[in-house]
Design brief:
about 20% helix
């Protein structure tokens, strides 16, 4: 039975890393959540992300967050990646009242060429210091900071403000 207390959108975002820089992009003005804010590519889980695939076991699909990231990276910024890793997670309630679970992932890429979808209006490859100059969605800077520490050899910690 459907229980609205347990219903959430599931979103996966992916911080792309290239030569010590992170890809950020500006959301279009028409977006319901965080219009005109800078963020990292990502999108919402769709049933087609798994239902159109063969089952990985008798009744389950695996690596769905990675599949969402791969799809969204290709759709939103035109970049293909292979190895995607988990960074952190968060919950927020969209302006239309829908609770949303976000899994923040990351991947390395050699590709710098970006082809933006209509949901994004600008992009930049930035260092952590340069990211401070952008109107990022709350928490994104701290995700970049967490990832940079990890990339410099620290154990992957937890998100902190």
């Amino acid at each position: 039975m459907y229980n609205p207390e347990k219903a959430h959108y599931v979103v996966a975002t992916c911080i792309l890393v290239n030569d010590g820089r992170f890809l950020i992009a500006k959301r279009a003005a028409f977006e319901k959540a965080f219009p005109n804010k800078w963020t990292v590519p990502g999108g919402t889980l769709e049933t087609s992300d798994y239902k159109n695939r063969p089952l990985d076991t008798g009744c389950q699909w695996y690596n769905i967050l990675e599949i969402i990231c791969k799809r969204e990276l290709e759709e939103e910024v035109g970049i293909k990646v292979d190895k995607i890793k988990y960074l952190t997670s968060l919950i927020f309630i969209r302006p239309d009242g829908i609770p949303t679970l976000v899994a923040s992932m990351f991947a390395h890429t050699e590709c710098e060429a970006v082809r933006l979808s209509e949901e994004l209006t600008q992009h930049a490859w930035v260092t952590l210091e340069q990211a401070k100059d952008y109107d990022l969605i709350d928490g994104i800077y701290e995700e970049l900071e967490l990832l940079e520490k990890h990339l410099k050899g620290e154990e992957l910690g937890v998100w902190k403000k």
